[in-house]
Design goal:
The structure is a homodimer. Chain A is α+β, with helices and mostly antiparallel strands and about 240 residues long. Chain A has two domains: about 5-140, Jelly Rolls, CATH 2.60.120.10; about 150-240, Orthogonal Bundle (Arc Repressor Mutant, subunit A). The first copy, chain A, has eight helices and ten strands. In chain A, the strands form three sheets. In chain A, strands 2-6-4-5 form a four-stranded antiparallel sheet. Chain A has a three-stranded antiparallel sheet with strand order 1-7-3. In chain A, strand 9 and strand 10 (about 215-220) form a beta hairpin. In chain A, helix 5 packs across helix 8 (about 220-230). The longest helix of chain A is centred in the middle third of the chain and has 27 residues, at about 120-150. The radius of gyration of chain A is 18 Å and the shape is globular. Chains A and B meet through strand 5 and helix 4 of A and strand 5 and helix 4 of B. Chain B binds a DNA duplex (30 and 30 nucleotides) through helix 7.
Chain lengths: ~240, ~240
DNA sequence: CGGATCGTTGAGTTGTATCAAGACGGGTGG
DNA sequence: CCACCCGTCTTGATACAACTCAACGATCCG
């Protein structure tokens, strides 16, 4: 039985911020409207002025931007518990689009309800602020990879990150997780061409670092993949790592 | 006569968020310790746990990350009024380093004083949160450029961004501003080699888009440079653009 | 007037893109 | 239950953006 939307949100916030019972209670009473969505659907688009935030409950979503030439850059993937457009709480006009990658379950929360919650619980404000800061930290790390690492290493890094983030919400075990993401989407995320992603994945498999069967990915050599990806989880700012 | 540190902070926050008289008053009383720094000095480093934030008052600073191979990616430049490590207010361990690019004047503000200010003025919390969200938005835009635009266009984009941001704090006029940044640093920012940056700058000059003399840069054809850089200022979320 | 830093230029190399075509595989309809 | 089809994955060949290396020129400064 999957956790409720509210439980998921609490669990996610607690992975980066300690909550009191009172705060957990307040969060559990937050009204969340649950919907399901097909793959490859825009949830919000550049220029939108949403009056609600969207929490991912099941599946994968991404944030992307398009260039004038029509090229797409995926700047973030989300795992269940993430709030892809939390920024819209304070930036009225969206500067990016959010789309489903796989089939998804989504939970919508009115801005008004969140503002109200923040006013009554300043520490929840801090927790949400912190969540947006972790997002920003991930942007910095991805930018460093795209600018200064080669495609092979970026791919390794992305797999490391997904493994750790999915583990944090209980969706990866023994280095195995479901990744319903096409190679074209991976390419848009690491700033490479789909063809090159294909070759890089073959290299990673050939080097014995990963294995994949359908959408299932297994990390065979965690230390090796971390080394290949130059991966240090510090930037994820997870509580369990003690770098709150 | 340059503005005081507090005045600068107020002016900067107001460029993205409206403040009341009372809030301006509170900000003007914030204790800020002013210091000067030479170029190329680290202000804070990866792994630090600072107890204060640093506001840039005069000069240029940058945020950078290093890869295992020793390559550097600059993920952000700052202009006076920016607070490069505002994130440290909620992320205890820094995941990046901040360094001066030119000679700088810096203002240090204790976390305690900021937390106190935020507790007394929830709207200042919102303003500062918003500031970190704009930073994140700039990261997304840079990532899109590095991943999906060519070096020529990235360079044009960076110059557009700096022009707009410097204008917002009164440091650019008629498309002319001081840019005390070496080509090597520009290269680290757009994810290119110094040699290539040199060539791309020559191209921009040859195309009649910019001119430079020493550290002074002049934009000769604003519309042309915007087009070359695929630049849309929406992502800077400036109030004057009406996309608060 | 050295000496250091930064900018410029040329030549050769490489990572990665693009193009094109074929193989696979999971759904759908006959 | 098979045949087909569409999206995805895979492979090979070619092209190009950008890197590296190396040297030289320009500036600034003590």
């Amino acid at each position: 039985m999957p956790p409720s939307a509210n439980t998921l949100m609490i669990r996610k916030l607690e992975s980066i911020f300690p909550l009191s019972n009172e705060e957990r209670q307040a969060l559990s009473e937050l009204p969340i409207q649950v919907m399901v969505s097909k793959p490859d659907q825009d949830i919000v688009r550049v220029g939108d002025r949403p009056s609600q935030c969207c929490m991912l409950i099941r599946g994968f979503t991404c944030v992307y931007k398009l260039t004038a030439e029509g090229k797409r850059q995926i700047v973030a993937f989300h795992v269940p518990g993430d709030i892809p457009d939390l920024q819209s709480l304070h930036l009225k006009v969206l500067d990016n689009s959010v789309a489903t990658v796989s089939a998804c379950t989504l939970g919508f929360i009115q801005h008004e309800a969140l503002h109200d919650l923040c006013n009554r619980h300043p520490r929840i404000t801090a927790a949400l602020w912190r969540e947006t800061l972790v997002d920003a930290s991930i942007f910095r790390e991805w930018m460093t990879g795209i600018g200064r690492r080669e495609a092979y290493n970026r791919m390794a890094h992305l797999l490391c990150e997904l493994k750790v983030r999915l583990e944090a919400v209980g969706l990866a075990e023994d280095g195995t997780f479901d990744l319903p993401v096409t190679q074209t989407e991976l390419a848009d995320a690491i700033g490479a061409s789909p063809v090159h992603v294909n070759r890089v994945l073959q290299e990673l498999r050939g080097d014995g670092l990963i294995r994949s069967k359908g959408t299932q990915v297994s990390i065979l050599e965690w230390e090796g993949l971390k080394a290949a990806g130059d991966f240090d989880p510090l930037y994820l700012h997870l509580r369990k790592d003690g770098n709150a």
